[in-house]
Amino acid sequence: MATRTDAPTRREQILKEAARLFAERGFHGVGVDEIGAAVGISGPGLYRHFAGKDAMLAELLVGISGQLLTGAKRRLAEAGRVAGSTTGPGAGSGAGPEAVLDSLIEGHIDFALDDRPLITLHDRELDRLRDSDRKLVRQLQRQYVELWVGVLREVYPAVAEPSARSAVHSVFGLLNSTPHLGRSGSLPGRGATAALLHRMARGAFAAVAEDGRG
Amino acid sequence: MATRTDAPTRREQILKEAARLFAERGFHGVGVDEIGAAVGISGPGLYRHFAGKDAMLAELLVGISGQLLTGAKRRLAEAGRVAGSTTGPGAGSGAGPEAVLDSLIEGHIDFALDDRPLITLHDRELDRLRDSDRKLVRQLQRQYVELWVGVLREVYPAVAEPSARSAVHSVFGLLNSTPHLGRSGSLPGRGATAALLHRMARGAFAAVAEDGRG
DNA sequence: CCTTCAGGTTAACGACCGCTAACCTCCCTG
DNA sequence: CAGGGAGGTTAGCGGTCGTTAACCTGAAGG
User: Fold this and answer.
1) pTM of the entire structure?
2) Angstrom distance, B9 CA to C4 C1'
3) Average pLDDT of the residues in B181-202
4) Most exposed residue of A179, B14, B18, B46, measured as fewest CB within 10 angstroms of its CB?
5) By percentage, how much of chain B surpasses pLDDT 70?
6) Contact between B207 and A206 using a beta-carbon 8 Å cutoff
7) In chain A, which residues have pLDDT < 50?
8) Which residues of B100-128 are buried (b: 16+ CB within 10 A; e: fewer)?
9) Per the CB < 8 Å rule, is A177 touching B170?
10) What is the dihedral sign for C-alpha A47, A53, A56, A59?
11) Cβ contacts of B94 within 8 Å, gap of 6 or more
């Protein structure tokens, strides 16, 4: 998460290209030879860096989920509040839950715009993992969702928990739609796109609250 | 689109099971033997009904896109208005564009809730098609999107066209999130889920209009 | 009763894929 | 200047997959 200035290592190159290829053609649709070719080496040379094709996917997916969760926790902490305590409502100290929600949305949008292949993989190739890895990824994802649900219900206390959870999943679907927004074509600049997505996410959440005790 | 009462033909069984399997494990992740086993026959027996595995996927994707577009056109026509004319604005006769938008949303939600595997395939396995089929599907999808964009801009005339198109894609992402909403688990009933999604879609669109000349 | 044909079956082929084995070649270090 | 490990290479094995070939069967029709 630290700002990197040095050149990317071979391992990172491989992961990046593998992510792009997996997103484009699916995990089973890409051969190890193609991944190797994408970084200038060929075929089995990858096995000097990874235990196998599965290991690349696992590292990608665990990395994505962990990065999302870590970023969200950091943003929640930066708001000067205490996260994760399930002890009950009313514990919020101050610093505007609305601002925290905005920060979460902003973070997710940044990720969706900067790492489109990863966001594609994230909800597409999960079932191709070994059981243990899949469980880990799902656990990280669940924590991420629950973190959002908690913040959302502080902003809109009237919304029941199942509705809040569904709403969060749906807004993820909205924010993760970036790969479909013109292949770097007509979209009116990154900033405008981010602003648009942010406004829509807030609008969708607000609509849940209007008569939203489901 | 007519209401069917007779038993499904073997071809339809195959398509349905293939859709489910493709959605679960990806096109390349499913073998023809599995598809055959899912309908009680085994392996190469499928070739009495389809030219090959690719043909099944093609028929599924073309069918989905066509069904969505046809349904949307019908709903637009049922509102007693004229569709598709690019001759300019101001041609709307009456019957509330808001109602048309609601009808489009309702139709898409019905599809997303009733045919989750298909909605998953729809934006996931498109690149596995032969060029001609892929072009056809993309053309149908584009018409569908443009139809939505037209209706949306009648409801919110201040929204610029690129913003409207992005907004439509994003709302599709929201509505298509149904596969992630609990594997038939805790979601509070089909009707409530549909209503929630509908409200969120409207809220997202409304938020585009608020200061939304992007 | 014979034919035909739709809709199956199993066997097998050829291609491809993930992975390993064996080998090579720098470059760094003592 | 050894030498050893990091990071490549090519050859090839074993398994899987899509597809075809050849054969079977039961029901419909004249």
Assistant:
1) 0.91
2) 22
3) 86
4) A179
5) 86
6) yes
7) 82-92, 212, 214
8) bbbbbbebbbebbbebbbbbbbbbbbbeb
9) yes
10) negative
11) B80, B81
